[in-house]
Write a structure and sequence with these properties.
Strand order of the largest sheet: 1-3-2
Number of strands: 3
Strand content: 15-25%
Shape: elongated
Radius of gyration: 17 Å
Largest sheet: 3 strands, antiparallel
Helix content: 10-25%
Order of helices and strands: EHEE
């Protein structure tokens, strides 16, 4: 394997999705929220939301969530 020098990094492609603030602390068990998005954006939005849910749940151990793609966007349930 050859070591290359002075090869520039590729420009980062913006693939992030901003879903805005989520009222996770305000959800009671059985409540849900719909994050509206286009069908072509659902996979990226779902991934972004799931990352936020994991981080929130790690900091708030009493909160458990489920999320899924649904017609019209992505839905998050507090379980």
């Amino acid at each position: 394997m050859k070591i290359d020098k002075n090869v520039p990094l590729p420009k980062r492609i913006a693939n992030r999705v901003n879903v805005g603030p989520l009222p996770l602390k305000d959800l009671n068990a059985g409540d849900s929220i719909l994050i509206s998005c286009k069908p072509t954006e659902q996979d990226r939005v779902l991934h972004s939301v799931r990352v936020r849910l994991v981080r929130f749940s790690q900091a708030n151990k009493d909160f458990k969530f489920s999320s899924s793609k649904v017609e019209g966007g992505v839905r998050v349930w507090r379980v």
